[in-house]
Amino acid sequence: MASRTILITGCSSGIGLTSARMMSARGWHVIATARKDTDLAMLRADLKVDAVHLELADPTSVAACADRALSLSGGRIDALFNNAAYGQAGAVEDLGVNLLRRQFEVNLFAQHELIRRLLPVMRRQGHGRIVQCSSVLGLVAAPMRGAYCASKFAMEGLTDSMRIELAGSGVHISLIEPGPIRTRFVENALANFLKTIDINGSVHRAAYEARVERMKLGRNEIFKLEPEAVAEKLVHAVESPRPKKRYYVTKPTYFAAALKRVAPQSTIDWFVQKM
Q1: Structure confidence by residue, pLDDT tens digits, 84-120
Q2: CB of 243 closer than 8 Å to CB of 237
Q3: Whose CA is closest to 110, among 92, 133, 142, 139?
Q4: Global model pTM greater than 0.85
Q5: Which residue range(s) make up the domain with 190?
Q6: Domain containing 67 — which CATH number?
């Protein structure tokens, strides 16, 4: 039997890199994406996987990635893990439309386009798995992270609709909702925040300065899990005969999901300010 093929986006580090390593060890043909040539070379040399360039903000790159993946797999695709994303921090009133647009281009529209290009192949095969990496912030909204929350809320809604539409097709779609994971996500988000938000010119300057210090120091270390915790959920989502609709990862995600079902909004608002 030929190896099953999975396309995993955002494999330069963290969840994507760990997932690529784990799926390859389980005998999958892994096609891993990254933006930088150095990361692509690392994936080929260290993991011995096929590595493909992908710039999520560029629709031409997204189309080329899908075509290249199908070429490498002989026209077959068994699973897609839409993992790549970034976090645009900042108060909503400080976010220009250009920043919101880029957040959605990278965190939602590119993933959607990959699905649209690969789903017809899965339908013809009669099987396939699509896994979307959402977030605890796709369940509850948090201050200063409105753009990221909006992109993940949108992913959740789009995925739920698609799951119903795919019933009976043999193609399953699942959401993974991580909380704090020990990756470079916060570090990268901080660098992007400092580059894109006018801290000194904002009415939120004091809150920004306090948040920057907390981000530099690191928060919620007690709740942080290693990327393997997400990769293990991915394994179940693509290998189980009955994949779950949602996979919670970390205690804050389980708690947020429970609060959303039973707690008043004021309690949820208090909770997210502690995250």
Answers
A1: 999 999 999 999 999 999 999 999 999 999 999 999 9
A2: yes
A3: 133
A4: yes
A5: 5-273
A6: 3.40.50.720
